[in-house]
Amino acid sequence: MSPMRYMGWMTGCSVLTVFVSIIWQTFLTLQTLSRTTVLLTGLLAIESSLKRPADETPPKVAIGYGACTDLQINATEFLNRYYKNYKIPTVTTSARDVVKNEDELLQSFAYYFQNGAAAERVMANGTLFKQLIEFAKVMDKERIHWYMGGNAPLMAMRFFMEGAEVLLGAHMSKKMRPLLPKEIRLAGVEIPDDDIHIILEYMAGDVWGPYVAPRANRYILHNDKNNPHIRAVEEMTNALKLYHPQLLVVSGLQMMDMFSFNPGEREKRLQQVKMQLISQPSDTRNHFEMASYVELKLLQELRQFVLPYVDSLGMNEQELSNLQQVLTHGRTTLATDCNPRIAHTLDQMRQVFIHLLEDYSVESRCDPKRRRVSRLHVHTLAYQAIFTIVDSQWKNTQAAAAKAALTAHRYVCKSQFINPESVLQVLDDSFATSMQENAPRMRISAASPVPCWKEHVQYGRDLERIKVEICVAPVLVCREARKTAGAGDNISASGLAAQL
Ligand SMILES: *[C@@H]1O[C@H](CO)[C@@H](O)[C@H](O)[C@H]1NC(C)=O
Ligand SMILES: *[C@@H]1O[C@H](CO)[C@@H](O)[C@H](O)[C@H]1NC(C)=O
Ligand SMILES: CC(=O)N[C@H]1CO[C@H](CO)[C@@H](O)[C@@H]1O
Ligand 1 pocket, 124 CB below 6 A? Predict the structure, then answer.
């Protein structure tokens, strides 16, 4: 072949290769798109089964405690602007519970940012905290956002949107009250100023110095004066006597950092929470919404005052790891894998379930007010997993998982309308139900977009058996995450509302 003809032949080949690969890519894209559409249709169909008849009395829900104002800013933009000439720290493994100065702030942020892990930290330095808020206020108006925040008000709003009657236990200012629908009843008094939380948000791929965020998440800083003391507890306990809800939700306890209390004082506040929980009649279900807890002592106090008296727990994958570590080994973990495999999560859920059941079976003899856990909901970026004890009061487990998955998508994409093209699928077509060898696999398909199955959980020295239903719903992950702070509150509340 002459060199010219040879070149021509080569070009022809490349053109053909490119052509074939374009067709192949299009084929793959269409295939993913159609799979997404099929899953979405399936999820929406399951969700629509939850519609309550118009004549049904709405469920009553009560939620505590606390409220705050969220100040949301772009993390990398904010830090680059104010700490431009700062030497960005090399990350050490030790992340801190509490941040006292700029160095510690940047170090702690770097640690979570490079892991893409959510974090909530106390800023112990009031001067620096005020300074950060002033910095944020002079940024462009479009770049900062103020929201009503706090787990309790956000969950309250979600329950209200799901058609529930709602009582909220919180102290808030008269600036904040109008942000809540007036139908939501408030147990608590008016205060002059709400606590502010600074939420530093970042997206997957955002760059700060040498670090790249592996996923979208947020780093929260606070310097609360009101929330740690959960002052609304007593007012709420009083209001509950007449209100008699089907569901009582306890949240916001992660705000009770030790720096806000004199020795022994925090325990007294937690005693009040326990009093509230144990004074509920048995037809009121108690739920505890976990959050990012860093202090081991506080987790141990929760294990003593709160966990024994709730029927249900909600949390994300990090909080699950943390709780599992505390229950099994009495220690906490910091950042964990941000996209854990389903099998791993389910195994951790089983362990937590078993631990709580064991504690119950040992201690309920001397403490008749103890409750046996009957529901566990774990939300991750890619899926929702719900365990319920078969024949317990919780209904619609499958629909609750579907609902939570759809809420997760709608929230993070900030859109009620779900466009299959905006969706990224993280899950495969099937998953193992445990890391153990030969564990059964479940398929996620058009025929079963939310796989559910039943299995026995064994616990205690006498190997008692209890039957649980497990449902896993895939989340259609948004390509462009718009909002991650507060997603957990919406997701957990929508799952709970579906099960009342
Ligand atoms: C608190 O922050 C201010 C402002 O950044 C700083 O000057 C001061 O040293 C900090 N205090 C402590 C105890 O670190
Ligand atoms: C923050 O701003 C930078 C550009 O300045 C952008 O690349 C990044 O994606 C933004 N992150 C968020 C969470 O909006
Ligand atoms: C998608 C979604 O449900 N978002 C809601 C989360 O909750 C807040 C209220 O707390 C609503 O304003 C959002 O619309």
Answer: no
